[in-house]
Write a structure and sequence with these properties.
By secondary structure, this protein is an alpha/beta fold. Helices cover 40% and strands 19% of the residues. The protein contains eight helices and seven strands. The protein has a seven-stranded mixed sheet with strand order 3-2-1-4-5-7-6, with helices on both faces. Helix 5 links the parallel strand 4 and strand 5. Helix 4 packs across helix 5. The radius of gyration is 16 Å and the shape is globular.
């Protein structure tokens, strides 16, 4: 039997991600669940995703991906989206404190009760993902906020490595703190907004299929109250 958990009852949630589509492909079902539970949900995206190797439609990725993010945010029921211009694929070259300052300002602006991002291991093998979350944790240390990291079960990561050669990294069940039941309707609609990235046969579609009706989260930082 699947162990089921509830999301924390935060009134305002800030998701910190590296690229447009991270909020949909990875966090979409979780963010939609927060929104449907009555939370104000905001996204801070650190890059415009201009270095993507996927290009499912014609056009300038800088413009396309910004528009896709805005459309996906509407579908997910997000209240606020801030898109920064740090270089895609090179977040590890940016001073962590500089990134964390942006996260702190965004968290204060939306009066966040908690932050959400990828796990610190990056989950998918992309170094930008872990760096974005490291910045979120650094900011949370300064603001004394809790942080949840999205992850996948160890067996799902193994399947994705075997089937796609994708360097996914997951955790065994005892190291996963929350197993949250989700409705993927809004997530799938949001993913469809990212037409430059929602390429048939991509590994992220398989990841969603393998996870089914649950998402998995770890506490990266906890506070006494939350």
């Amino acid at each position: 039997m699947t162990r089921v958990s509830a999301l924390p009852r935060w009134g305002s949630v800030l998701a910190v991600v590296a690229h447009p589509d991270d909020e949909s492909f990875a966090l979409g079902a979780v963010l939609a669940a927060f929104a449907e539970g009555g939370a104000r949900v905001s996204v801070l995206c650190l890059t415009r995703g201009e270095a993507s190797t996927l290009h499912g439609v014609a056009g300038d990725l800088l413009e396309l991906r910004a528009a896709e993010l805005a459309a996906a945010a509407d579908v997910l029921g997000l209240d606020d989206v801030e898109l920064l211009t740090f270089p895609d694929g090179r977040l590890t070259d940016i001073e962590l404190d500089q990134l964390a300052d942006h996260v702190s300002r965004a968290a204060q602006r939306v009066r966040a009760d908690g932050l959400v991002g990828f796990d610190l291991n990056g989950v998918t093998g992309h170094p930008d993902h872990g760096r974005a979350t490291a910045a979120a944790v650094r900011a949370a240390d300064q603001l004394d906020l809790p942080v949840l990291g999205w992850t996948v079960p160890e067996q799902v990561a193994l399947r994705l490595r075997e089937e796609h050669g994708a360097p996914f990294d997951g955790y065994p069940e005892p190291q996963v703190d929350l197993v949250v039941p989700v409705d993927r309707t809004r997530q799938l609609e949001a993913v469809a907004c990212h037409s430059s990235q929602a390429v048939p046969g991509s590994v992220m579609w398989r990841r969603i299929e393998l996870l089914g009706e649950h998402e998995h989260l770890r506490w990266l930082r906890r506070t006494d109250e939350r």
